[in-house]
Every structure is written in C-alpha cells, then in structure tokens.
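Lab manual, section 2.4: Encoding a predicted structure.

Procedure: take the sequence of the chain (245 residues), apply the prediction step described in section 2.3, and record the output as structure tokens. A sample record is shown.
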Amino acid sequence: MTPSIRARAWVLTSAFTAATMLLAGCAGEPTTATDASAVSTGLVGDQADGGEPTPGGTLSFATYNSVSSLDPANRQDGGATGGGEMAAIYDLLMRYDLATRDFEPQLAQSLTSNGENTVWTLTLRENAAFSDGTPVDADAVQWSINLYLEKKGTHAQVWTASVDRISSPDAKTIVFTLEQPWDEFPILFTTGPGMVVAPSSRPHRPVSCSPILAIPTQRRCWPRFPDSTRNRTPDSNPSKAPYRT
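Recorded output:
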C-alpha cells in the first residue's frame, strides 16, 4: 500500500469512528426538558403609563429596514420591513387584534365565511373614500388587488394559489371563492392585498409619490424616506378610535 493510499485510509477510518461516536451520543437517553417557566412575551423594559391621549406630539422609533416605496406591491410589506409604516399610512381592510386574538374589520365593515371556509364575503363601510374624494368601493378594491398581483407583490403567490375567483354583487360587497378551505384567509387583508390603492392614482403619478389613500393621513413625496412626516386629515373610518393609528 502506497503512503498516499494509507493516508486516505486513515482519514476515512477516523471519520467513520467520529461519526459512529456521534450517532451513539444521539441515541442516548433524552435530556431533561428546558424549564421555560421564567420566559414571558411582551414589551421589553418598564413601560410608563401613557396618560390620556392628546392631539399632536412626536413619536420616534427604530425599524429594521427603511421604507423605500409607498406602493404595497413594490416592497416587502411585512412588519419588520416597512409593514408597520405601511399599515399606518394605508387603512387596512382587516387588522389583527392582540386583545381578542382575532382578525377585526378596519376599512372593511365585515368579513364572513360560509360553513366550509371556502367562500368569504367582504363588506365595505358606507361613505368610505380616498383622500381625493373617490369612493372606496368594490371596483376599487378589486383593481388594487389585481394591481398587486400583476406587479407580483410579496404575497401574490399565496393569493394566486388560494383564491379561485372574485365577484362583486354590488358596490359594497366582494365575494372571494377559495381553491380549498382556509380559516385564516383574513390574514391576507392585513398585508399588501389589504392596502387599498386608489385607481385614480394611475397613470397620473407613481404611488410612491403623494399616493391617494383611504386613510386618515396624507404624505409628501420622499426620495428614500429618511424622515416620516404625516399630516392628519379627516378620518375615513367612523369606527376608528380618535387616536388610533
């Protein structure tokens, strides 16, 4: 046996021995379960009482990633990548309520399903309007969703795989028929598909510059959005608490 062959044989033998010892260790008795009794979830640090809400003031906070576009289809619309800011700018169709642990209507009046969770009916609020005065109706919502899918937004693939067809029996009602039962379908309306862009925003101007929104704020055009300044306008959602954002 040549030296090079002996060397390779030694390496292979050593590797086999180490692997055998590792497998033997993995096959031993299970370790004691980790004590998680001291683990809790919630805000970090002591939180002072905010007191009674008042108009005005400044809120400063740090985010994982800056907002690069106000078009929901042009960016990641998750919470850590601008989703929080986008949710504050757009009036989402649905929101997740941490207190009730359920999806609650926001811009929508209601979202109900049939017994099999295969057909979902979304009803819009009366008199809801975009900041330019055009109505937030079924046609506008469908147009916005189609734009999101056409531009391949973050959740477009999930939507396409889940939704079979959409119909609108009237101006305030949209019916979504799914490919198969899904009891958490409302979650899609808490992200990009639920951020309704006004049809009147195209093709006159890009959504990323002074967008037309169904929201209680108006926004000026940002180059890269290093600072976020929003001016409050009359609230389009009569059910929203006066200081809720």
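Check your result against the sample. Strands lie at 94-97, 102-105, 108-113, 119-124, 163-170, 173-178, 217-219, 230-232.
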